[in-house]
Amino acid sequence: MGKVDHGKIEEAVRLILEAVGEDPDREGLLDTPKRVAKMYEEVFGGIGQDPREYFKTVFHEDHDELVLVKDIHFQSMCEHHLLPFYGKAHVAYIPRNGEVAGLSKLARAVEAVSRRPQLQERITAEVADALTEMLDPLGVYIVVEAEHMCMTMRGIRKPGSKTVTAAARGIFDQDDSKRAEVISLIKMS
């Protein structure tokens, strides 16, 4: 990620506070622009990161069965409202020729794509495509479930509602029973 311009963010936050009728110089808000700038640097830390980087190193293991890392917690910011959405990603793949990725790399790829202004559908597809391109597995299946604050604190105001997206590549795109296997494992506690 390029250098974040804290000054521009601070100026913009002051303007927003004024625009909504607040006094940015009152005691409780004095440091808010600085805090928001620091937060944005962290929250948008995935801008410019390529999730494929995490799959450049592979291990060779005599394994050609399903690999699933589930319940990968993530937070992101909706690019339409700049409000958070958060949830869990489940990343599954079947290695080809024994090429496996480090398990933490699956979570790191989710983290990289979620830490930028984003859409849930894009997170799902970007992780699936990165894993497919770099490992050339027999198949990839990604499921992402999240609660969107743009639906819970504004607009329709339906807290607790979740959006679920999925991306299937390779064998998972062709074989219903393979997808069903992953879904049943995701549901297991």
UniProtKB/TrEMBL annotation:
Oligomer status and interactors = Homopolymer.
A GO term for molecular function:
GTP binding
Q: Which NCBIfam families match?
A: folE, PRK09347.1-2, PRK09347.1-3
What is the name listed in the Swiss-Prot or TrEMBL entry for this protein? GTP cyclohydrolase 1
- A GO CC term assigned to this protein in UniProt: cytoplasm
Q: What class of enzyme is it?
A: hydrolase
| Span of domain GTP cyclohydrolase I | 9-186
Write out the catalysed reaction: GTP + H2O = 7,8-dihydroneopterin 3'-triphosphate + formate + H(+)
Q: Which Pfam families match?
A: GTP_cyclohydroI
Q: Which SUPFAM superfamilies match?
A: Tetrahydrobiopterin biosynthesis enzymes-like
The EC number(s) given in the record are 3.5.4.16
Pathway assignment:
Cofactor biosynthesis; 7,8-dihydroneopterin triphosphate biosynthesis; 7,8-dihydroneopterin triphosphate from GTP: step 1/1
